[in-house]
Specification:
By secondary structure, this protein is α+β, with helices and mostly antiparallel strands. The protein has helices spanning 3-9, 14-25, 46-68, 71-89, 103-113, 123-145, 156-170, 178-188, 208-219, 225-230, 242-246, 248-256, 291-315; strands spanning 98-101, 197-202, 232-238, 262-267, 270-280, 319-322. The longest helix has 25 residues, at 291-315. The radius of gyration is 51 Å and the shape is elongated.
Length: 324
């Protein structure tokens, strides 16, 4: 007997009727029911929650196990370790803004003062060379801070020179007033004055006895061709430069000589036979005759002075230390 027929027979029974209705609503063939994920914890079984947590832990362990086999992760960790060790062993140097003038550096200034190593600089000259080097070092460091050396493989002086150009480019000097120009010209008129000049002939330096024989030969016009070739003609030489080249005694003796006459003269290098050929008086310049040139020179000096003041302001933040 089928369920449908059975239910028709027992319709009079209410309980049987309910059973029959349920059976009639069920599908004729069995269907596999898939579990549906439960989103509400309140209605879930505690054992199921614990099972899910255990499963999640196992997933994390599996993830870490896979990552531990990644070469890229090993390289990243190794790099981080090396970087950390280097940071501890080699911390970044502190910029103390200390400039040290070493003994070796001072000696190099002294050695380079005179190529022939015959003269040593005075204390003032040595200090001037040191100050110049310190200024160059300051400009170099400030230039490095401004990254003006980026992509430039030049030496320190080149970077300092770049910094100088930056400073000079920012300086604006107005035209001098007439009072400023007159005051400057009064102190520097020697640059524009026409100096007294002399022209003379001179033989190479030698001892007094040899020079005397040469004088005798010259006055009697029997000097050798070699002596004639070695005798120099110095034309239009400023008188004020004679002392530096030949000494004060030579200058005074030459100026006291009559023109066109050969005489013995002693210089700082030895004895000479000399003849004064001509003498030209000097001329004092006036501001009106050289105003434009004087204004240009004033502008150049004023620009350099302001640039040096800018370097001094930078120097104020540095400490210059000299080794004893």
């Amino acid at each position: 007997m089928t369920d449908e027929k059975h239910c028709r027979i027992r319709r009079g029974d209410a309980r049987a009727k309910k059973v029959c209705d349920n059976r009639m609503s069920m599908p004729a063939t069995p269907v596999e029911v898939q579990p549906f994920p439960i989103s509400r914890i309140d209605d879930s079984d505690p054992n199921d929650v614990a099972h899910g947590a255990t499963k999640s832990s196992r997933s994390l362990v599996s993830l870490f196990a896979r990552l531990s086999r990644e070469p890229l992760l090993h390289f990243t960790l190794l790099g981080a370790i090396i970087f950390g060790i280097d940071a501890v062993l080699h911390p970044p140097a502190k910029d103390e803004k200390v400039i040290t003038v070493t003994k070796a550096m001072r000696q190099s200034f002294i050695d380079n003062f005179d190529e022939d190593k015959e003269r040593a600089p005075s204390e003032a000259q040595l200090q001037k060379m040191i100050d110049s080097w310190v200024a160059s070092e300051i400009l170099y460091r400030e230039g490095k801070a401004l990254a003006v050396d980026r992509g430039d493989e030049t030496i320190r002086d080149r970077i300092a020179y770049k910094m100088q150009l930056l400073i000079f480019d920012q300086i604006r000097v107005p035209r001098p007033t007439d009072e400023q120009l007159q005051a400057w010209f009064a102190e520097n008129h020697g640059r524009f004055d026409e100096p007294e000049r002399v022209s003379f002939y001179i033989t190479p330096p030698t001892d007094q006895e040899t020079a005397q024989r040469q004088l005798d030969d010259i006055t009697q016009q029997r000097e050798s061709e070699e002596l004639q070739k070695l005798t120099r003609a110095i034309l239009g030489r400023p008188v004020e430069s004679l002392s530096a080249s030949f000494g004060d005694n030579f200058r005074d003796g030459l100026l006291a000589m009559p023109e066109g006459e050969w005489k013995l003269l002693q210089s700082k290098d030895g004895w000479h036979v000399a003849r004064l050929d001509s003498r030209q008086a000097g001329n004092l310049a006036s501001l009106d005759s050289v105003r434009d040139e004087a204004a240009r020179n004033w502008h150049t000096e004023e620009t350099r002075k302001r640039a040096w003041e800018a370097v001094k302001r930078l120097k104020a933040s540095y400490q210059v230390r000299n080794e004893p």
